[in-house]
Protein 1
Amino acid sequence: MIMSKFDTFRFCSNLAGALLATRWIEDDLRIVIRKIAVDPPIRVPGLISRILKQFPTRPEFMRFVMYLLIDDPGMNRALNRLAGRPNPPYRRRSRPKRPLVMGQPPPRLAPLAIPPIASETALANWLGISDGKLRWYADLTGRNRKHPAGPLRPYGYRWVPRLRGRPRLVEIPNVGLKRIQRKILDGLLNHIPIHPAAHGFCPGRSIVTNAAPHCGKQVVLRFDLADFFPSVPAARIFRTFRTVGYPEAVARLLTGLCTTQLPRDIWDNRPNPPVDGSDHATWQRFAAPHLPQGAPTSPALANLAAHRLDRRLNRLAALVGADYTRYADDLTFSGEGEFARRTKRFALLVARIVGDEEFTLNFRKTRMMRCSSRQHVTGW
């Protein structure tokens, strides 16, 4: 009799079902084994003793007994003799692990002068910390936000009042986490190119370079992104690290080191909360993993995460002969002729693209400034 792998799996499954159908005592289990309809009879010395040692009481699920039978050496030898094959008829095989290697960035980005980090241990060594401290700072399970206020929280929080609108929340990493983030910024993020339209927090660029393309234009159109840093979710940061070639495990740890979740008590104690709950959408952004305003890595990661937004808006501006720049959350367009005649339609298209990229416009700060009046950018 030759048994295939499927027949062996079915045999062990049926035997497990028969064993669970009788009383869970040694004598009754032996009777079930002797009644197995196999020619020649199968003999597995000590099988019942091993089953009862592993499961002193009847197990809840049949698959527990089935996998014990499949992995039992005596059962494997008996089935080998029965099938006439030298190898075990069935063996549980784990999924082969993929090798931990760096991937290749897109051709338009290569080559990148970033450190080759292929594993969790390699990342911990590069950062100069232990594996345990790396996992604690990365906080992939979101437990740190549940700690009471004190040294176990890796972030400090401060509400900064503003002249207009609600206060701004600044999330400040502690000394150890800030050192790690500065290492990531200087050794990794600063070596990844950003879109030419981005001028905020970039070496060699400033508010002057952001304003220069718009000088002397007939119309200047300015938009503001609401909650810019909290609007960048952890999934987009993860995709950024994956794009430049880091393995999934390393990308998740880097994402955890650069994002955070706001504890509920900090939000509940915010100053001057609205009584109508109109800021619930803001709370949802802060409660999810997001870029903290106050971390050294957040500006660079926000620029990288907004790369597709910059590319789409720059293409839209080029269609009407306009110029486009972005300084952090300030979007500025300027142009002549066709752009000046289509500003309303253009503003609707900008709002649509911003929404597609999962950002939100602060319409209170939208400004259209013609050459007959004072034109200014990156501010009120």
Protein 2
Amino acid sequence: MSANLGRFLLTLAALGGLSACSKPPAAPTVGASANGPAATALDATKPSPMGPAAAQSAAKAPVAPPEVTLPAGRTLRVRTTTALSTKTAKPGQRFEAWLSEPVVVNGTTVLPKGARVEGVVAESDPGGRIKGRAVLGLRLTAVESQGRMLPLQTSVYTRVARGTKSRDAMKIGGGAGVGAAIGAIAAGGAGAGFGALAGAGAGTGVVLATHGAPAVIASESLISFQLRTAVSVPL
């Protein structure tokens, strides 16, 4: 009996060992491996290292609006809103105008027609007497875009007064005629010669005492300027 019992116990032990070997491997503990599926799922649920406040701030960061650059040499055509004259205008005096046509780049309107433009009187010279002519110069300083004024550097538009030689000659000749008539009445024929000389001198004095015609740029005048430097215009 004891021998049989021993064999029976050995048989049970052998069967127990086989049963242990046939069991499936235990499921891995959640989070046990950094590269496992469970670890990946846990990583997906982790909060951003930036934190909620930093993430919201990054999402709300302003984006710079697109811009178009107008190159140097680009022409701007404007119409003046008031008359300007060398009789009253002073260098540095401001004036206003508006774009007479839109500025278009690659089919996109960068500056619309009617946009407000500002400028200054660059030169206002009444001109020398007799030979000199009055000169009036203007340049642009800013144009309105998206509710603000963009600084500009442009060429100078110059207006030169018309010549007055014929009018001055009439003044001198007219003075000589009047002087000759007065001299003839006062002293006969001989007095006419002296009166002509005196009258001519008086007419020349009038011309020397006055400037020539002023240089004038009328209101609603169409003027063209060229950009001296490039300008970035927001869209």
